[in-house]
Amino acid sequence: MLILECPCCGVLADETELAPGGEAHLKRFGPGASDDEFEGYLFMRENPRGVHFERWRHVNGCGKWFHAARDTSTLEVFGTYPAQTTEPPRDIRDRISARRPGWTWREFA
Amino acid sequence: MSEAVSALNGQSFVGIVKIEEAGPQGMITLRGDAGAAALQKAARDVAGVDMPGIRGIAAAGDRAIAWMSPDEWLILLPHAQAHEGVATLRTALAGTHHLAENVSDARALFRVTGEPARLREVLAKLAPADLHPDRFGTGEMRRTRLAQVPAAIWLDSAGEARVICFRSVASYVFDLLSVAAAPGSEVGFFDA
Ligand SMILES: [Zn+2]
């Protein structure tokens, strides 16, 4: 069972109180983008066994979106952080480095 | 004005705790910037109590304000005064970014009374929330789910809980609470 602390209301929310929102930190490409950029934005997703960054919504709770960093195979949670964040925060990345030396995810490490 | 009728007309059930649909209850959804002085003052003027902090519920007499999210509060007041309450908020907040809406008839309210430990376990059978006395007490508004529908629960006192859900699922929630309170279904998890 996955339990995430919602950074908006502070509740330790059981997975069944949350709705998954897919991969975090996607960069939107719209009109004027190249076909490759648009394809990447629409379809290309990370699917790691290990460190992953995701969006979640506290749907049966405060209703807010937030980000979570976790390990997809062990369900270890490295931290949650606000939705208004465009890349994994330094403190979360440091925490992951301490637990998973040498990890990478997209352009982050 | 037509006579307000609550979702289940005061239906009740007695098992290891008592479940009662609480009848018409005034409820106003208020949204806006938590830091705005005008918003805080308007809410206090209508509810007679200061806006509570994160996950709090503050009550005074027959009125209360509950924290619902970082930019949303639920004001509880007598049903007959909800309409006027909304008008007061809108007048006070004209020009301030906000939303005030009377949601009284879109919701159902239940009163769950009984022995404190029984009451916690009836709710804990249905919600994925930690309802241990060390983690959940009076003064906290906990939004969660009861089985398959969203709900908000709080403790008025150790022996009385309140449950709010959408009106359209009121009979579902009443049935859930009644089954969870079936005679002989004591678990004893919260017994000291
Ligand atoms: Zn939340």
TrEMBL record, chain A:
Name under which the protein is recorded: Sarcosine oxidase subunit delta
UniProt xrefs under Gene3D superfamilies: Folate-binding superfamily
GO BP of this protein: tetrahydrofolate metabolic process
Domain of life: Bacteria
UniProt organism field: Lutimaribacter pacificus
Molecular function per GO: sarcosine oxidase activity
One Pfam family here: SoxD
TrEMBL record, chain B:
Source organism: Lutimaribacter pacificus
Protein name: Sarcosine oxidase subunit gamma
Top-rank lineage group of the source organism: Bacteria
InterPro entries cross-referenced by the UniProt entry: SoxG (IPR007375), TrmE/GcvT-like (IPR027266)
